[in-house]
Amino acid sequence: MYVGRFVIIGKTNGKLWAGYRVSSRSFPNRYAVRSNDMTVAIMPRDVKDLEKSPYISYNTIKILPTAAVVTNGSHTDPIVEKIAMGYPARDALALTLLAMDYEKDALNTPRIAAVVTKDSGFLGIVTKDGISVSELPLQDGDCYMVATYEKTTFSKVTLEATSADDLARKMYDLTFEKPVCSAAAYQKDGGFELGTYNGPQ
Ligand SMILES: NC(=O)c1ncn([C@@H]2O[C@H](COP(=O)(O)O)[C@@H](O)[C@H]2O)c1NC=O
User: Fold this and answer.
1) How far apart are the CA of 54 and the centre of ligand 1, in A?
2) Which residue's CA is minimally distant from atom 19 of ligand 1?
3) Which of 28, 46, 115, 190 is exposed most, by the fewest CB atoms within 10 A?
4) Residue 77 belongs to a domain with what CATH number?
C-alpha cells in the first residue's frame, strides 16, 4: 500500500516518541538531515526539484524543551512557535492546520502533524474535506499514525522503539511502499533526542 508521508506517535518503556517517514513516487531523491540541535529537515538531493514543487523541502521535526513537533511540511515552524508562546498543543495544531490548509497540488495532499509533550501525544490532519485534531491515549506499547493518503484517519500500529535512531530505522522498514527517508524524536534526559535514517547506503 502507498500511503505517502506519515507521522506516528507512541510510547515504549515509559518514553514518548514521535516520528516521520517520507514515502514518495514523484520526489524520491531526498534525505533527512539534522540541521541543528533542535531540527531535522527534509532536503532534495537536486535543488532543481524545488522548482517543481513548493512542498518537498521543509523542517519536519523541531524540538522544544517540553515538546516535539513532527509534520509533513512548512507548518512545523508555526506549530512550534505557538507552543513556545504557551498555546496548548491541541490549539497550536488546530489553529495552524486550519490556517495553512491542505496543499494546493494536483492531489490536494493533506497536511499532517504530530506533537508529543512530556506526558501526552496528539495527531492532526487537514484535508480538502475537513480537519481533525486529537489527543490519543498513550499507554506503554501504544502507537498511532496518520498518513497523507489511504490511512487518513488516526489508526493503531504495532511499533516499539528504544531510541530516536531505532525509531527512524523501524519507520523506514514498515511495509508501506516507496520509503525515502525517516526522522524521529525520542524522550531522553527530560527532553528529546533526534534521529534520522536515509536507507541502506
Ligand atoms: N511532504 C512531502 O515530502 C511531500 N512530497 C511530495 N508532496 C506532495 O505530494 C504530491 C504527490 O507526491 P507523491 O506522488 O510522491 O506521493 C507532490 O506532487 C507534492 O505536491 C509532499 N507534500 C506533502 O506530503
Assistant:
1) 9
2) 55
3) 190
4) 3.60.20.20
Give the residue carrying C-alpha cell 484517519.
153
Instruction: Tell me the C-alpha distance between 194 and 181, whole Å.
Output: 14
- Position 172 in a domain: yes
Residue 201 pLDDT more than 90? no
Is 68:115 a contact under the CB 8 Å cutoff?
Answer: yes
pLDDT above 70 coverage of the chain, percent: 100
- C-alpha to C-alpha distance for 58 and 81, rounded to whole angstroms: 15
How many structural domains comprise the chain? 1
Report if residue 131 sits inside a domain.
yes
> Ligand 1 pocket by C-beta < 6 Å: which residues?
4-5, 22, 24-27, 42, 53, 55-56, 72-73, 103, 105, 107, 109, 148
> Does residue 29 form part of some domain?
yes
Closest CA to 123 of 40, 1, 18: 18
The pTM (predicted TM-score) of the whole model is: 0.98
Q: The domain containing residue 123 runs over which residues?
A: 6-197
For residues 149 and 167, what is the distance between their CA atoms, to the nearest angstrom?
22
Q: Is residue 1 part of a domain?
A: no
ipTM: 0.99
